[in-house]
Write a structure and sequence with these properties.
Length: 249
C-alpha cells in the first residue's frame, strides 16, 4: 500500500468478510490464516509510521498511526476468538481488552471510517454477551505532580502543548506519572481505567468459568499472561504440591 487512505479503503473493502470470520463458530484454521494476514497488515502500518516519520513526512506518519490502531483492533479481536475456541479464556479476555483499547482510539481518530465505529461498538457488545460480568481493581495513588512528564517532549505534564491521547508525527502523547508518594486506596470497581486488572476469583470461584478452582473442569482459565498481581495470586494457588509422603487427614 502506498498511502494510508489506500490501506483504509482496502480494509473497508475486506471488513464484511472479516466480520463473518471474527465470530465463534467460523473455522479455526481460517481464523488462524486471517490472523496471520492481520498481523502482516499491522506490521506494515508500523513500518510505514517509522518510515514516513524518518523521512520528515509528519502528517502522513500520523495518518498511518491511525490506520495502525484500527489494524491492531482487528488483529486482537481475532486473537480473542481463537483463544475462545482454544478454551483459553483468560487469554481471550486479555485480547478483548487490548482490542477494545485499540478500537476506542481508532473510532476517535477515524470518525468517518465506518469499520472503526463498528468494531468499537461490536467489542462492547461482545464483552456483555460472551463474558460473565467482571470486576476490577483500581488503585488510587498520591503522586508528585512536578515529576509527571509528557512522553513526547519530557516537559512537566501540562506545561507543553501535547495533549495526551493525541497523535503527533505518528506518536501518541501520554502522561508519564512518576514520583508516586503513597498509595491512597485500592477499590473494587465495575468500570476501571484498566480492564486488565481483573479479579480472577472470588473465594475459590474462577470469575470467567464460574467453576470452583481445583475442580475437574476442562475449561482453562486463566491461561497465558495476566497482570503481575493477578498472576502471582493465581500461580501461588495453582502450582501443584509435590507430596513426598502421604498426608494424613
Ligand atoms: Zn510535550
Amino acid at each position: 500500500m502506498n498511502t494510508p487512505d489506500e490501506m483504509l479503503s482496502a480494509l473497508a473493502g475486506e471488513y464484511a468478510a472479516y466480520r463473518l470470520l471474527a465470530t465463534l463458530t467460523s473455522s479455526l484454521s481460517k481464523k488462524r490464516r486471517s490472523l496471520e494476514a492481520l498481523e502482516h497488515t499491522y506490521r506494515e502500518c508500523v513500518r510505514a509510521v517509522v518510515g514516513t516519520r524518518a523521512a520528515g513526512r509528519v502528517e502522513e506518519a500520523s495518518a498511518w498511526r491511525r490506520v495502525q490502531e484500527f489494524a491492531r483492533a482487528q488483529r486482537d479481536e481475532m486473537r480473542m476468538w481463537i483463544s475462545l475456541r482454544e478454551q483459553r479464556f483468560h487469554a481471550a479476555w486479555e485480547a478483548l481488552v487490548s482490542a477494545q483499547y485499540a478500537a476506542h482510539f481508532a473510532a476517535r481518530w477515524l470518525p468517518d471510517f465506518a469499520p472503526a465505529q463498528d468494531i468499537d461498538e461490536h467489542l462492547a457488545a461482545v464483552e456483555r454477551t460472551i463474558f460473565p460480568k467482571q470486576r476490577f481493581l483500581s488503585p488510587g495513588f498520591i503522586s508528585d505532580e512536578s515529576q509527571a512528564e509528557c512522553t513526547l517532549c519530557h516537559a512537566v505534564a501540562g506545561e507543553c502543548d501535547h495533549i495526551p491521547g493525541e497523535i503527533y508525527a505518528g506518536e501518541v502523547a501520554a502522561r508519564n506519572i512518576r514520583g508516586i508518594v503513597a498509595m491512597r486506596e485500592l477499590s473494587l470497581v465495575d468500570n476501571p481505567a484498566n480492564k486488565h486488572a481483573r479479579v480472577f476469583r472470588y473465594e475459590n470461584m474462577d470469575t470467567l468459568t464460574l467453576e470452583r478452582i481445583g475442580s475437574a473442569s476442562p475449561d482453562r482459565s486463566p491461561a497465558g499472561v495476566g497482570t503481575r498481581i493477578a498472576r502471582r495470586g493465581w500461580y501461588a494457588k495453582r502450582r501443584p504440591v509435590r507430596r513426598a509422603e502421604p498426608i494424613s487427614t
